[in-house]
Amino acid sequence: MAQRQSFQVGTGLFILLGFAALAYLATQTTSLANYRQGPSYDIVARFTNIGQLKLRAPVKVAGVRVGSVDGIVLEPDKLDAKVTLSIDDRYKIPDDSAAAIFTSGLLGDQYIALQPGGSPDNFRNGDEVVLTQSSMQLEELIGKYLVGQGDKPKPDADTPATQ
Amino acid sequence: MSARRPAFLASGLAQVGACGIFLIRILRALPLSLRYLRETVRQIFFVGAMSLTIIMICGLFVGMVLGLQLYHTLSIFGGTAALGTVVALSLYRELGPVVTALLFAGRAGTSITAEIGLMRATDQLDAMEMMAVDPLAYVVAPRFLAGLIAMPLLACVFNALGIFGAHLVGVSWLGLDSGTFWSNMTSSVDVWTDVMNGVWKSAVFGAVCTLIATFQGYTTPPTSEGVAYATTRTVVFSSIATLAIDFVMTAFLM
């Protein structure tokens, strides 16, 4: 009788340990840990090019995460990208703020930075961000550089580009 | 000599087929085995809880080795900040399920094979049939369920200790910044695609390893030599099957 009891206790402890390990892995070591989703409101921003922006990419104000990207769709009439940003309710953002797509670090993931404006009114659920800046594309930058250099004499092949 | 080769292939195919049929018979006997729930709990204890020692120690060492090896490789590129990410991803998706399955096959699989083989050799299974107790429902199905339930839990314990071992080596010993370690890990590891994929994989491995173990025990020739060969075959076939299915599942789940 005591043996049967100890088997059941042992099994129960083992299953508990297994689930505790799974819970620890899932909550402490994955992106679930910083995904604490409180109540939030949605605003919309349109970009001509979203670059490498992905769903659940962070939305940051002054470098601090305030929300995430909830949806990305192609608008059929204007053929630009309509991005839905889900902002935490704690943060009030003036409704003339600008949204820009930046890259974290040199080769990191892309995120949306909201540069606050000075309006006394704040964004409400469903508002649209009017001022947007699409992500920088490498080819456009090179094109701008080449066009900019068009009037100057063509540099020699061996002179370094940073001249 | 040329006559033996087709016979070997045919017997190999016959074995695989018999194993498949055995699986179907176990699944059919599963509802019956719910009467013997206490036996299933006992088996979870023997198959899962008793394996904890080896799983925990090996998990710790695998994590430590991963931390050490990856640190030295990443430091060539100046990417040691990604140590947490790389260790977590490689553990959760591949090393956790596979190494746990191999250890499980070696420890629990062989004990299941030996136990059922000895039951076969001492005529206990035939005696059960004569008493109208289905040996599949009373002996095999509880062990199958136990393996299926215990393996994911063991894999999670292995992963947790692996992370702890990597943290021990990377942060406490090699001087990596703790905040960098954890924040890079949490930002790139996803619950559904990484942790849960590992859980599904280990559940499948548990089912396969326990199936092979019980099949080898059930169909072993009832001699002591037969039981010895059966336990060896369990480990060999479980290992091969685990690694082959790992590749297939990774391709599926990628």
Task: Give the count of structural domains of chain A.
Answer: 2
| Proportion of helical residues of chain A | 10-25%
Total beta strands of chain B: 0
Overall geometric form of chain A = elongated
Tell me what the structure shows.
The complex is a heterodimer of chains A (about 160) and B (about 250). Chain A has helices spanning about 1-30, 140-150; strands at about 40-45, 60, 65-75, 80-90, 100-105, 110-115, 130, 130-135. By secondary structure, chain A is of the alpha/beta class. Chain A folds into two domains: about 1-35; about 40-140, no CATH class. An eight-stranded mixed β-sheet of chain A has the order 7-1-4-3-2-6-5-8, with no helix packed on it. Chain B is an all-alpha fold. Helix content of chain B is about 85%, strand content about 0%. Chain B has helices at about 5-35, 35-45, 50-75, 85-120, 125-130, 135-175, 180-190, 190-220, 225-254. In chain B, helix 4 runs parallel beside helix 8, helix 4 (about 85-120) packs antiparallel against helix 9 and helix 8 (about 190-220) runs antiparallel to helix 9 (about 225-254). Chain B starts with a helix and ends with a helix. The mean pLDDT of chain B is about 90. The interface between A and B is medium-sized, with 23 and 31 residues.
SSE layout and pairings?
The complex is a heterodimer of chains A (163) and B (254).
Chain A: H1 2-28, E1 40-47, E2 58-61, E3 64-74, E4 81-88, E5 98-103, E6 110-115, E7 128-129, E8 131-133, H2 138-148
Parallel strand pairs in A: 1-7, 2-6, 5-8
Antiparallel strand pairs in A: 1-4, 2-3, 3-4, 5-6
Chain B: H1 4-33, H2 37-47, H3 52-74, H4 83-121, H5 124-130, H6 135-173, H7 178-188, H8 191-218, H9 224-253
